[in-house]
Structures are given as C-alpha cells and as structure tokens.
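User: quick one, sequence for these tokens?
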C-alpha cells in the first residue's frame, strides 16, 4: 500500500511578499479614498447612484462600511487574505450592478479589474487565511 503525500506549496520569497504588500497597500488606498470615502460622506454622485439602484441609502452605507473594513483588513497581515476575499464579493456585486441595473458594460471593467487583483491577493495570502480559519 503506497502512501501519497500531498505536496506542500513552495514558500513565497521575499520579493513576492513585498509585491503583495505593495499591491495590498495600493488597493487599500483606493478603497479608502475612492470607494468607501464618497459613500460614507454622502458625496452627491454616490447618493444618486444608490438612488438609481433603488435599495435605499442604507445600502450605500453598508457598501461603504464593507469597503472601509476591507481596506483596513488588507493592511493587517493576519486578515489580508480574508479581507481580499470579502472585497472580491463586493466587486462581484458592483460588476453585476453595472451590467444589470445601469446597463453599462464599460463601467463594469473597473470592478472586474479590482476583483482580479483582489483575487491575486487572496491567493497570495491563502496560507494566512487558512491558518486564521483553522483557529
């Protein structure tokens, strides 16, 4: 009877770790300043957009809080992967909203790109996420 061992993934090098931190920092800054900020302070464009969605301004606040929390989580080592996964979900919702509610495929490109970048972070930080979830 042969015993097969599951190969362990190679540890990421220092350069990859630095690249992930740079990406996480840039994404966190974007989500704080360009995404969550306007929603939480009630910037007129954000208010109008959520009026058009039709779910009410509570939904604008909810999305803003989720984006703010995700941005903070991206810069906390233990939470970065989990935060990235959560923001992937938010970006999936934003993409669907752009396509279905607004009928604007061109504007869906931004949340798709952000979702892919966040997916890369989630993948890169999977060992930390797995350890966090195992607790």
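Assistant:
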């Amino acid at each position: 009877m042969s015993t097969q061992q599951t190969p362990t993934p190679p540890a990421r090098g220092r350069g990859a770790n630095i690249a992930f931190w740079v990406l996480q920092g840039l994404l966190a800054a974007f989500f704080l300043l360009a995404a969550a900020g306007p929603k939480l302070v009630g910037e007129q464009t954000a208010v109008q957009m959520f009026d058009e969605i039709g779910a009410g301004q509570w939904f604008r606040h909810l999305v803003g809080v989720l984006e703010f929390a995700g941005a903070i989580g991206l810069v906390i080592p233990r939470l970065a992967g989990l935060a990235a996964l959560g923001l992937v979900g938010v970006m999936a919702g934003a993409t669907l909203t752009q396509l279905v509610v607004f009928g604007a495929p061109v504007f869906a490109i931004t949340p798709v790109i952000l979702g892919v970048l966040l997916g890369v972070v989630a993948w890169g930080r999977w060992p930390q996420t797995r350890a966090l979830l195992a607790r």
